[in-house]
Input
Amino acid sequence: MSKTKSPETERLFNTILKFESLEECSSFFEDICTIKEIQDMSQRLEVARMLNQNKSYAEISKVTGASTATISRVNKCLVYGSDGYKRALEKMED
Output
């Protein structure tokens, strides 16, 4: 069972799925998250994208500014996680 599964998180995720534009989604995230949280999530997705391209930790850190600890954590999720990053990366290719 997912660690995030609850009625509240399901309602959150279902709401996000109903946004019809980038603008709607962006406005919601600007209200619900801090700028730093949005930047951190964006950075982790970029780290996952670069790891998927077999870039080195040094190159990823230089380009994204992510620490090696963050890169390692994202890599662990890519290898052992719930496939969320993998699905997101596939969606980015579409």
Helices lie at 7-17, 22-32, 35-52, 57-64, 68-80, 84-93. The mean pLDDT is 95. The first helix runs from residue 7 to 17. The chain has six helices and no strands.
